[in-house]
Design a protein that fits this description.
Order of helices and strands: HEEEHEEEEH
Structural class: alpha+beta
Largest sheet: 5 strands, antiparallel
Strand content: 15-25%
Bound molecules: zinc ion
Distance between the termini: 20 Å
Low-confidence stretches: none
CATH architecture: 2-Layer Sandwich
CATH topology: HIT family, subunit A
Length: 159
């Protein structure tokens, strides 16, 4: 992907990482990758592959790619880990805390669970199914484990 990069933009920096253990999918328009915090198993960032500051700046192709990935990720997390549904949030509030805001369109995807997935003995219990996700707790996982969580999702999303 050859696209504008903005200096100091966290999302742009993230797109430059080549050996991300949580990487799931890169399309012509987006990158989908797991967050280190897996409090909600499968929590991922969906990042636009170029700098754009508003959802309304997305092209038609970018918009449909975004929703296509979200729909496929909902199915992949349901099939792999039994997710009941997927919450999505395009926030970008943090960027505006800076005196020089550089918001870069990206979304937070959090699968939600009624039954706690168990991966090799590690339990990922949704702390508050049926409620807005919480942000005052985390369940950070090591890069090797992130890779293990990502693998089946990557395989499904590749199809
Ligand atoms: Zn950026």
């Amino acid at each position: 992907m050859n696209a504008l990069r903005v200096n100091g933009c966290q999302s742009c920096g993230f797109l430059e990482i080549n050996d991300d253990p949580g990487h799931i999918l890169t399309t012509d328009f987006h990158t989908l990758s797991l967050a280190t915090d897996q409090l909600y198993l499968g929590r991922a960032y969906l990042t636009l592959g170029r700098y754009a500051s508003k959802i309304s700046d997305l092209t038609g192709d970018e918009s449909s790619d975004m929703w296509d990935i979200i729909k496929r990720y909902e199915l992949a997390t349901a099939q792999t880990y039994g997710a009941a549904h997927l919450t999505i949030a395009t926030l970008m509030n943090n960027a505006y805390k800076s005196p020089n805001p550089q918001p870069h369109v990206h979304s937070h995807l959090r699968p939600r669970y009624t039954n706690a997935p168990n991966i090799g003995g590690a339990i990922f219990e949704d702390p508050n199914f049926g409620e807005h996700y919480i942000r005052n707790r985390s369940h950070n996982v090591a890069p090797e484990f992130l890779h293990e969580i990502a693998q089946p999702l990557r395989a499904l999303m590749a199809n």
